[in-house]
Amino acid sequence: MQENENQVITCNSSAGRPDPIVKWYLRNPRENNKYQLTQFSSSTIIPGDHDLNAVVSTLNFKPNRTINEWRLYCEVWTRTSEADITSKEITVNVSYPPENLPIIQGIDTNSILPVIESESGTFICSITGGNPPASLRWNCFGSTYMTYDIHENNRVTSTVNWKANRYQNKCSCISEHIDNWKRIINVTFNVQYPPAKPTIKIGHVIIVEEVRVIRYKSLRVICESKSNPSSNYFWTGPGTSDKVGYTLDIASVNILDQGEYKCQASNKMERMDNSYIVGSNGSSFNLTTLYFSGTPTFRFEGMKGQVIEANNLKVVRNDAFSIYCDVKGNPTPNVTWDTGHQGPNLDISSVYSDINRTCTATNVMRETASELEMRAMSTNSLLIEVFCMSLPLQLFLKNYTKKIN
Question: Does the 200-289 domain belong in CATH 2.60.40.10?
Answer without folding.
Answer: yes
